[in-house]
């Protein structure tokens, strides 16, 4: 069994069993970023063998606030499957979430494919059918969120589930870096942020994703949902919590945890 298969199997079992494992990077300090992506792809293959279908990709750790919280210093990427798409209610046990945290994002819904290298933010806008408000519920199969960049990459960029708000807006009429988001938790103000928190421009983050994926032979495909990264700090979520966000010029999104 290869290193990717060994750790991919371990993370797949942890995902299905809703338990955590010690950090991979602490147990095997020689792992490289390429090793971590190989583990992530092995984990994805196991999920697809279970019947899940890829419906998009996500960018992680794009903002300074999130990098500071997680102790990582560069973005990463993971995959979205149909099983990970939730409505406005997230059943923590049913979705096998262990230590979930909510973050407000801008989602891009593609009408055309993007294959790096050489993709620009203008290319991203041209390929986008609409943007939507989104909550990504990040989660980690690594104990106590003690992750480095190797651990989060291997663990599908620490993704749990995601939910899209109902609004669909053409990005060509928007100044994406200036979009303002406000987030509440259980009716009380929680956080706020701007589009420029994500690599200066969410479209730039998606271009980075297309170009980075291109090196691994992976494309952004027509119909994909692309989560461009959190605009605000991550917030722990527990049963009974209700989060709501309002993205200026786009619309709102809410999610309730049970």
Multimerization status = single chain
Shape: globular
Give a short account of the largest sheet. 7 strands, mixed
* Percent in helix: 25-40%
Structural class: alpha+beta
C-alpha Rg (nearest Å): 17 Å
**Overall pLDDT:** 94
CATH class: Alpha Beta
Number of domains: 1
> What's the architecture, going by CATH?
Alpha-Beta Complex
Number of strands: 12
CATH superfamily: Fumarylacetoacetase-like, C-terminal domain
| Strand percent estimate | 25-35%
Low-confidence stretches: none
Termini separation? 38 Å
CATH topology: Fumarylacetoacetate hydrolase, domain 2
- Order of SSEs: HHHEHEEEHEHEEEHEEEE
- Contiguous helical run count: 7
Task: Provide a descriptive summary of the structure in words.
- This protein has seven helices and twelve strands.
- The radius of gyration is 17 Å and the shape is globular.
- Strands 1, 2, 4, 5, 6, 9 and 10 form a seven-stranded mixed beta sheet that branches. A five-stranded mixed beta sheet has the order 3-12-11-7-8, with no helix packed on it.
- It starts with a helix and ends with a strand.
- It has a single domain (3-257), classed as Fumarylacetoacetase-like, C-terminal domain (Fumarylacetoacetate hydrolase, domain 2), CATH 3.90.850.10.
- The chain has helices at residues 3-17, 24-27, 33-49, 64-70, 121-127, 149-154, 202-214, and strands spanning 54-60, 76-81, 89-90, 101-110, 128-138, 159-164, 180-185, 188-194, 225-230, 235-236, 242-247, 251-257.
- The relative contact order is 0.22.
- With 258 residues, it is of the alpha+beta class.
